[in-house]
Amino acid sequence: MSKKVITFIGGGNGTHVGASLCGINKLLEVRILTRSPKYWKKKLSLTLPNNKIVGSKISKISYDPKNIIPGSDIVIVSSPISAYSEIFNKVVPYLDSNTIIGTLFSQAHVDAIIKKALVRNNKVSKNITLFGIQYIPWQSKTIKYGEKSHLVGQKSIVELAVYPEREYMKVQSTIEDIFNIPCIQTPFIATTLTTSNQILHPARYFSAFGLQQWDGKTPFINKNWGPGSLYTEMDHISAALLGDMNDEIMNIKDSLKNKFPDINLSRIIPCKDRIKEHYGDQVDDYSTLKSTFNTAKMYRKSKFAMKDVEGGVIPDVNHRHFMDDIPYGLCAVKDVAQRLGVKVPIIDHMIYWHQTIMGKSFVTGPDYSYLDGTDLCETGCLSQFGYSDGIQGLEEYIRGEFNIDNNYEPCKEYNEIIHKPSVIYEPPLRLGPLYYKKSIMNKHNKLPVICFDIDKTLWKLNVEEFEHTDFSRKELELYLFKDVKDILEWAKNEDFKLVLASRTWNPEKVKIYLQRININQYFDNQQIYPTGLGKHMNSNYPKNKLLHFYKITEEMGISYNELIFFDNEINNCRFANELGITSIHVPDGLNWKKLNEGLKQYMNK
Hints:
The chain is α/β, with parallel strands linked by helices. It has 21 helices and 19 strands. The strands form 4 sheets. Strands 5-2-1-6-7-8-11-12 form an 8-stranded mixed beta sheet, sandwiched between helices. Strands 17-16-15-18-19 form a 5-stranded parallel beta sheet, with helices on both faces. A 4-stranded mixed beta sheet has the order 4-3-10-9, covered by helices on one side. It is elongated, with a radius of gyration of 27 Å. The N and C termini lie far apart (62 Å). The relative contact order is 0.08.
């Protein structure tokens, strides 16, 4: 029985581990195409998660594709995504008919990148099958380049996209045989919307450097950027930003489902759920995003990409954390969102901050929400592969994979105004505010600070919607939710500190209204201003309440976990939760029942 020939391209962690695993299998012949063949040994050493060391053999190692690619049954690229186009253009001319070629990790329409190279090299008619693995099958680490590596953790499943789709079973069987991990089918569009590196790394770098308003030049000293710094030292702010970008990807998924109901998008799953499914008991605590990364055994060797300079170190903007995850990560995600009409303000802000320190231009406009910068040619956006602008180009791309007809209604944006019944007043129960206050004091010996959003939380109006209206005191009293004044009076009498956190674009009018109905007196700290890009006042902070919470804790000398926060917007609550703030969603405004819920939740944490 002839051996199946597996060729790995690239010298990263994936090639070290993948080639080692395949080299153990006596039914496989393993080859490696690399720019640095002189550093590679033909006998590789792999340390397994149980610390057992195994050896494997490599048949050929070369920098020249014509010496490696011909005769390959399957070609697997494991390199930075920003190098994919260059690699495929070099190897495609030497592919045999019926070869399977793809990537160990997919992002930014990898199928379109390969198809472009096939067309350029007149290989379209050779029955070549394309594949992309949505998430690299392992967490791995190179110990000694070209010789030793460590399989830190292995995923329980592999999400696999294949073109043409009719060849899926063939590719699935091959991947399962060589990696011994079961495969699940997913479309290529799902590999573009991954909830991994492209949102993980930007969240971490922005938290570590963006909040310090780093100028892109000044070196950092006296800080450990070594193993574990990237993931296991994840802080609350990184986790909260990660959660926001995760939610934006889920919004894109929902819009895609409405547009293309016949496509299975089930493998676009929230970040924490994905990690739990992939790694299971390799994580000790899945309670929050922060705890998930802090206690993940397979992430303990990952670190920030830093570059030595005179006087210290700076982030290495030429590393794949930047060159892959912005132009071939968030820009591609933003492109899909823009074509669908889905707003992604946190992703916009992450692209804006990263492009600034990278010296690039991807997003432009007064609020940096339009993807038409001068460096768009360096991204994985669909326009770079010949697809039409707008929703039409997205339809062309997806139809090309699934042969879907064009009988879809254009994607529509619509605002749905839901009129809900007024909240019925419920008097405090036996286990009411006073009970929980006593319990909090017995357990924590210190009262929490209670923080409120304003619009649609304390009153029923949104001030921005009535920019040219000046409400009287009587009118404002009618808009105030029924329980609000009683709650504020009670909380103040019971010695709670009360604060406000509002992102209104009209802060002066809000302050006037608070004073007009005489409730401004209850608040010890008021953070009322917009954040984000555009009509901005604080453009260094993304379009959420990070700056508000940061100022409250700094000015009052408290930690995030000493806050209870009430907001009518669920995304703000999720963000606050990841910061460690006790957060209560009040879709119908503040009332006694929700106050009790917040006090109880705080007491029990």
